[in-house]
Automatic annotation (TrEMBL):
This protein's pathway: Amino-acid biosynthesis; L-leucine biosynthesis; L-leucine from 3-methyl-2-oxobutanoate: step 3/4
Gene it is expressed from: leuB
Binding locations of substrate: 96, 106, 134, 225
Alphabetized UniProt keyword annotations: Amino-acid biosynthesis, Branched-chain amino acid biosynthesis, Cytoplasm, Leucine biosynthesis, Magnesium, Manganese, Metal-binding, NAD, Oxidoreductase
Domain Isopropylmalate dehydrogenase-like: 4-360
Localization (cell): Cytoplasm
Cofactor(s) annotated in UniProt: Mn(2+); Mg(2+)
MF GO annotations: 3-isopropylmalate dehydrogenase activity; magnesium ion binding; NAD binding
Residue positions binding NAD(+): 76-89, 289-301
Name of the protein: 3-isopropylmalate dehydrogenase
Residues the entry annotates as binding Mg(2+): 225, 249, 253
Species of provenance: Aestuariivirga litoralis
Tagged with keyword Cytoplasm: yes
Any one of the GO BP annotations: L-leucine biosynthetic process
Domain of life according to the entry: Bacteria
Length: 367
């Protein structure tokens, strides 16, 4: 099958790490493993410089028509003072909104070669492979009313509103159960039903979807605060964790730090399946930002971006076996002691962005 990939490298180290993914894509095409049609666009500060918007309508249309968007990173001091609605992040927010990306997938994988870099003990993190599924378009970040009111007596009142509707919980639950079936078949649903009505509803709907559609998957309910504790105590008890926007934001950052550097962490965001083709709109991006402090120095670790492409292979491009191989190639390179600065610990770095990318592609070619 042929797939359209739309690349939005963005700003700072975004284009530097994207270049390493482009080399891998070119190899897939050259070997005839896949037929990827690649197009490129501008997002963030680079788009603002070119046409005064964080993403152009033409590039939005290409993103909408693609099978997967690969996104680098946006932002940097150069654009700190641009008008709010065309600031670099507005490009990413527009993409998330228009593509309807309601499911954010954040894996936390601990490569054995980096287990000692974790702030936790080796036995707690070695072999860790969990996936946090965060609801991304609802909840307290978007619910109305959302206001600060002046009460007139020197006091103000801030209000955020947590809102979830049945369909929003149903669809994120289905994503989590479907993913669990391809993994270790377990879903842990995190909410706070003890103090929140949305938690009661979340629990009720996840339970119903499970009983009706996924009785073969193991389901447990966990209070979100306890989940945070358990992630630090014994994270390997989890397989897939499904949770709302706010808890997911926090829990995924906790899980991320179990495994080491920001330069290692990929993510995927998925929309609803297309009625005709069944393909989901999707965007793949590293968790890190544009890292202006190291941009242009060759110090950026491309693994987060490469692993994000690996998630695209798995979830959008029908090449799950190649996603596994890409993970193996990354593990092999790390086992050989090849390190960019962010994962070198007390040792000096022995690889630039390009050298790390080339080493991973070199290992992939052997598999
Ligand atoms: P950041 O993630 O860009 O950098 C944080 C620290 O981690 C820096 O010291 C950086 O050098 C390091 N780092 C990040 N990625 C790395 C990699 N691949 N390899 C090696 N080291 C890496 O976050 P920061 O500094 O808070 O923000 C910088 C800019 O990026 C800001 O303009 C911010 O708004 C933007 N940003 C964009 C995001 C996105 O595009 N999704 C996400 C987060 C921040
Ligand atoms: Mg966060």
């Amino acid at each position: 099958a042929s797939y359209n990939l739309f690349l939005l490298p963005g700003d700072g180290i975004g284009p530097e790490v994207m270049k390493e993914v482009e080399a891998i894509i070119a190899w897939f095409n050259a070997e005839g493993i896949a037929r990827f049609e690649v197009d490129r666009g501008l997002v963030g500060g680079s788009a603002y410089d070119a046409h005064g918007q964080a993403i152009s309508e033409a590039d939005m249309a290409k993103a909408m028509a693609s099978d997967a968007v690969l996104f680098g990173a946006v932002g940097g001091p150069k654009w700190d003072k641009v008008p709010y609605d065309v600031r670099p992040e507005a490009g990413l927010l527009r993409l998330r909104k228009d593509l309807g990306l309601f499911a954010n997938l954040r894996p936390a994988i601990c490569y054995p070669a980096l287990a000692d870099a974790s702030s936790l003990k080796r036995e707690v993190v070695e072999g860790l492979d969990i996936l946090i599924v965060r609801e991304l378009t609802g909840g307290v970040y978007f619910g109305e009313p959302k206001t600060i009111t002046d009460l007139g007596n020197g006091q103000k009142r801030g209000i955020d509103t947590q809102v979830y509707e049945t369909y929003e919980i149903e669809r994120i639950a289905r994503v989590a159960f479907d993913l669990a079936k391809t993994r270790r078949n377990k879903v842990s649903s995190a909410e706070k039903r003890n103090v929140m009505k949305t938690g009661v509803l979340w629990n009720e709907i996840v339970t119903r979807i499970h009983a009706a559609e996924y009785p073969g998957v193991q389901l447990e309910h966990v209070l979100a605060d306890n989940c945070a504790m358990q992630l630090v105590r014994w994270p390997k008890q989890y397989d897939v964790i499904v949770t709302d926007n706010l808890f997911g934001d926090v829990l995924s950052d906790v899980a991320a730090m179990l495994t080491g550097s920001l330069g290692m962490l990929p993510s995927a965001s998925l929309g609803a399946p297309d009625a005709k083709t069944g393909r989901r709109k999707s965007l793949y991006e590293p968790v890190h930002g544009s890292a202006p402090d190291i941009a242009g120095t060759g110090a950026a670790n491309p693994i987060a971006m490469i692993a994000s492409f690996g998630m695209a292979l798995r979830y959008s491009l029908g090449l799950g076996d190649w996603a596994d191989k890409l993970d193996q190639a990354i593990a092999a390179v790390l086992a050989q002691g090849i390190r960019t600065k962010d994962i070198a610990g007390s040792q000096p770095a022995n690889a630039t962005t390009t050298q790390m990318g080339a080493a991973i592609l070199g290992e992939l070619k052997k598999l």
